[in-house]
Amino acid sequence: MVYSAEKLSEEKVFKDPVHRYVHVRDRVIWDLVGTKEFQRLRRIKQLGTTFLTFHGAEHSRFNHSLGVYEIVRRIIDDVFAGRPEWNDDDRLLTLCAALLHDLGHGPFSHAFEKIFDLDHEEFTRKIILGNTEVNRVLVRVGADFPKKVAEVIAKTSEKKLVVSMISSQIDADRMDYLQRDAYFTGVSYGQFDMERILRVMRPREDQVVIKKSGMHAVEDYIMSRYQMYWQVYFHPVSRSAEVILTKILHRAKQLYKENYKFKYELMHFTSLFREHVTLEDYLKLDESVIMYYFQIWQEEPDPILSDLCKRFVNRNLFKYAEFDPAREYKKLAQLTTLFMKAGIDPDYYLVVDSSSDLPYDFYRPGEEEERLPIHLLMKSGELRELSRESEIVDAISGKRRTDHKLYYPADFLQDETTGAEWKRQIRSLLE
Ligand code: CA
Question: What is the distance in A from the centroid of ligand 1 to the CA of 140?
Fold first, then answer.
């Protein structure tokens, strides 16, 4: 039997708290799960620093990736199979792309990408196409199969229907992470009737569409996404931890550039500091490795690096104040000067962080991010864009909401052994 069609003699199941079971029958999928590059995702948390706010949020990208695979498998096997618009030859391609879509994520992706100019999407492509165990599995399906999988994940594939199942405004990725993140954080937002949505999904040549009768389930999904962004993903306390994490990396990189003598061997960080990270270097990084460095850097003589690492490890985070950059830039300049006078380096201890989200958007050609809208399939067979039918969705369509906060170490400002007068002035500005 050809490898791509090979089935396991017995179905394998993963127990999953969100989908109850993840079912694997295809040999290729089972082999991919067993590769070391996929197993690495166990050591990378889905939600980065969010566990410092919601202590349950320790779930990994491994969990999530299996979940996305399972949702796609159910769409294909339970809803699309046998429909004339669905080409079952695309089944394995879609399943592999779903399983591997986050493969290139590194530890605490956002902070690392920002400071070291890395791009997880580029690493996903490199892992799929490079000299890896994942690549060796995919090549057994066909010489050009790794490339096809990479193109679906990069959204450059001409198979638009397949792409839309994995990345669109209503895709398996979002449906899994909303439910999974809600489950592990323990919040009540993030829940919607996925069973209903799956049952009303229909394949079309270039996208997945939703039967009109499922509109309310989709409204619920969009609202729960909106709630999750503001209640969980942009939680100001998680962002404080993210700010500190970013500043640790910033400080360590700066010290390296200044030829600072680190007490301990840098190993994993050397290629990051030199900004020449090979695939091999990258695959050695995970969150346990990074936490090890944060542990040992607590003992570095550099007071800033050591303080920031202590804060992250022991969860002594920065406090925050509301901040409006358009109106309060003068206040920020004033604060910066006062921080310097008080002997607190504003580069590391006075940080503006902005988060912004667009809950749903219809298609706007030529815009920075051309979003594929959600289309409803009307009884007549006509397709209508969701916000034209749903007043709830129309109310939030295209409305970007941004939140700015100013982060600072309140404990430093309370300590009046030095710079008491300046610190008092800072406090009165921040309160
Ligand atoms: Ca994902």
Answer: 25
CA of 166 to the centre of ligand 1 (A): 9
Strand ranges in 229-268 using DSSP code E only, listed in sequence order? none
- What pLDDT, in 10s, does the model give residues 228-286? 999 999 999 999 999 999 999 999 999 999 999 999 999 999 999 999 999 999 999 99
Query: What is the CA(171)–ligand 1 centre distance, in A?
Result: 10
pLDDT tens digits, residue range 47-60?
A: 999 999 999 999 99
- Please check whether residue 382 lies inside any domain of the structure: no
- Ligand 1 centroid to Cα of residue 380, in Å, is 35
Beginning with the edge strand found earlier in the chain, give each strand of the sheet holding 208-211 in spatial order: 201-203, 208-211, 375-377, 383-385
The total number of structural domains in the chain stands at 3
Full domain range(s) for residue 256: 236-312
Q: How far apart (Å, rounded) are the C-alpha atoms in residues 195 and 289?
A: 39
Are 13 and 116 in a shared domain? yes
Q: 357: which strand partners?
A: 401
Ligand 1 center to 105 CA (angstroms) = 9
Gap between the Cα atoms of 151 and 161, Å rounded = 13
321 Cα: distance to centroid of ligand 1 (angstroms): 31
